[in-house]
Amino acid sequence: MKNIFFTPGPSALYFTVEQHIKDALKSDIPSISHRSKAYVKMHQETTEVLRELLQLPENFTVGFTSSATEVWDRMSENLIRNHSVHFVNGDFSKKFYTAVSAHEKNADGRIVEAGTHHDLQLAEINSEVELIGLAQNETSTGAAMPVEDINRLRAKYKDPLLVVDAVSSLPIPEFDFNNLDSLYFSVQKSFGLPAGLGVWTFNERCLEKAERLKAEGHYHDSYNSILKIAKMATKHQTTCTPNVLNIYLLGKVAKDMLTKGLDQIRQEAKYKSALLYNLFETHPKLNAFVSEKKFRSQTVGVAEVNGGSETLIQGLAKKGLNIGNGYGEFKNRHIRIASFPTHSKEQIEMLVDEINQLDF
């Protein structure tokens, strides 16, 4: 029985990854030095195709970290002297807030109930705030922040650095990077790669802020500090030995996505999410956790299960269909279903049919 993973990360590998791994092994990619000409060429190819896929402006640097989680610490050390604001509506947006607090910064957590979202038009941010943290797609709850709301917030507050967690949504949202200062993600979700690589993009405003903090003695010069990442990126290299195989695979999958076409990928995302939310709204034992349609994620569908989720999850697993459990306080109460670019329309249709047939 072949397993299909609809878990929200790590998730199913992108359907071309198996062949790319075989090609990488034949080409000795996992063994090349990260200071070699072969690596530099590969690094450059990956960052260039990623720029094209994301429509990333030239004033943005593409850096690589061990994970998206690491980015929270690097931003705490390099981009915040005293004050930040974090819009929290679930466990992952909360983790960024608590990471900054752990660095003894004055982090202001604007917390709303899980499964809901902030009305950013009503947000009031004082002049001391240096950085605003947003989770565009809250993986723990399936609540998504509309890109137009982010754009309106930037129009209202131009001075603070605006940083966005897009870990489980890229490349579906159409971000306007002119309204962002940093966007970061990891590859084991929507990009369908093995876990172990974070991607941190940031513009010149971030570098200018880091330089000011360094001059003032408020900059932590870690092994992967932002200025070191930026310096090495100009040479198509990293500060330390990176996940070479995953960087190679990211470039290949990004190219595959471009070949397929982002318009098609986004249209499929709408269709697949519509199937899931229709299931949640029509099944007698399921309820969509995010009630307001405007805030529903297109890539991670979350539902409350009347009577608990364990029987449903186990029943699907026996059929080789693996879905996510609820996160944190919602464990065994929720299901979380990923509909990432690697999940075909037919796979989501099959999953919906199986859930409708199961007795749980």
Short description:
With 360 residues, this protein is of the alpha/beta class. Helices cover 39% and strands 18% of the residues.
Using only CA atoms, what is the Rg?
A: 20 Å
Record field, number of beta strands: 15
- Spatial gap, N to C terminus: 22 Å
Q: List the total number of helices.
A: 11
CATH class of the largest domain: Alpha Beta
Tell me the major beta sheet. 7 strands, mixed
**Which spans have pLDDT < 50 for at least 5 consecutive residues?**
none
CATH topology of the largest domain: Aspartate Aminotransferase, domain 2
Strand order of the largest sheet: 2-10-9-8-5-3-4
Name the beta content range: 15-25%
Could you say how many structural domains there are in total? Answer: 2
Just name the CATH architecture of the largest domain.
Answer: 3-Layer(aba) Sandwich
CATH superfamily of the largest domain: Type I PLP-dependent aspartate aminotransferase-like (Major domain)
- What is the helix/strand order? EHHEHEHEEEEHEEEHHHHEEHEEEH
Helix content: 25-40%
Topology:
Layout lengths: L3 E2 L11 H10 L10 H18 L5 E6 L2 H11 L4 E6 L2 H12 L3 E6 L19 E5 L1 E2 L4 E2 L2 H10 L4 E5 L16 E5 L11 E6 H12 L10 H8 L10 H17 L1 H21 L3 E3 L11 E6 L4 H8 L3 E2 L1 E2 L8 E5 L6 H13 L3
Parallel strand pairs: 1-13, 3-4, 3-5, 5-8, 8-9
Antiparallel strand pairs: 2-10, 6-7, 9-10, 11-12, 12-15, 14-15
Helix pairs in contact: 1-8, 2-8, 9-11
